[in-house]
C-alpha cells in the first residue's frame, strides 16, 4: 500500500510540474533518466522544434493576414489573434527545453518552463470562445447581431488572458495539491462545450434548408470552422485526458518517459496545426507579377476573410 501511494504521489507531481522525477538521489538530466528508452523523448523534442520553425512563422502570418483585412474581418478574428499570440509565445521555448531536458540539472529553469506550459494549457479557452461566436452566429442570429460590437469580445478575451496568467502562475509554483485536476477538468469541459456547439450548428444547418442541398454560405463557413476546432481538440488535447487517468496501470518509468511525452507532444503541436488550418481556408495574397520595366504591376490583390 505504501509503495502504491508513493507511485501515485510521483505521478501526481509529474502532472503538476511537467517534470519527470528522478528515482536516484543524485541529480541527473531528464534525458539521462530516460536513457534506456529515449525514443519518445526524442520524438517530443522533434515536435517542439517543428513548433518553433513552423508555428512561429505560421502564427505571424495569421496575425499579419488578420491585420491586413481588419476592415473586413470576422467577429471571431479577435480570438484568433489572441490564440496566435499565445501560440507564438509558446513556440519560443524549444531551445530552453532542449537544454533543460538534456544538459541542465538546475530546478530554476523548470519555473520558466512550467509557466509556458500553463499558458499553453489554457489555449482551449480561446478555441471555446471562437466556437461560441460561431454558435451564436448560426443558432441565434438575432442575438448575435445585437452583440456584434467587438467590445464584448475584447472583454471576453481579457478575462481569458486573466485566467490564463493566473493558471500559469499557479502551475509555475508546482506545489499545489491536486492541481493537475484543474487541467483535466478544463480540457474535458472545453471538449464537451465544443461538441455541443458542433452538434447544434450541424442541426441548424440541416433545419435551415429543408428539401434542398443548398445551404447558406455563412453557415457553411461557420460549420467548417467548428469542425476544424473540434478536430484540433480531439487530436491534440484529448490524448492527455485519455491517458493520464490510467497512469496507475503503467510503471513509473514508462509513464515518465513514454506516456507523458506522447500526450503533451500531441497537445503542443497544436501551436503549428491551428494556424496552418486557418491559413488553409483563407485566400492568401498573390505576389503581383511585373511583365517588364515599362509595364506597371497589377493592382493590390483583394483579401477575403471568412465571415
UniProtKB/TrEMBL annotation:
GO terms for molecular function: G protein-coupled receptor activity. It is found in: Membrane. It comes from the Eukaryota. The chain crosses the membrane at residues 41-66, 78-104, 155-176, 182-205, 226-246, 258-279. Keywords: G-protein coupled receptor, Glycoprotein, Membrane, Receptor, Transducer, Transmembrane, Transmembrane helix. GO terms for biological process: phospholipase C-activating G protein-coupled receptor signaling pathway; positive regulation of Rho protein signal transduction. InterPro entries: GPCR_Rhodpsn, GPCR_Rhodpsn_7TM. GO terms for cellular component: plasma membrane. It is a multi-pass membrane protein. Residues 58-278 form the G-protein coupled receptors family 1 profile domain. This is G-protein coupled receptors family 1 profile domain-containing protein. It comes from Culter alburnus (Topmouth culter).
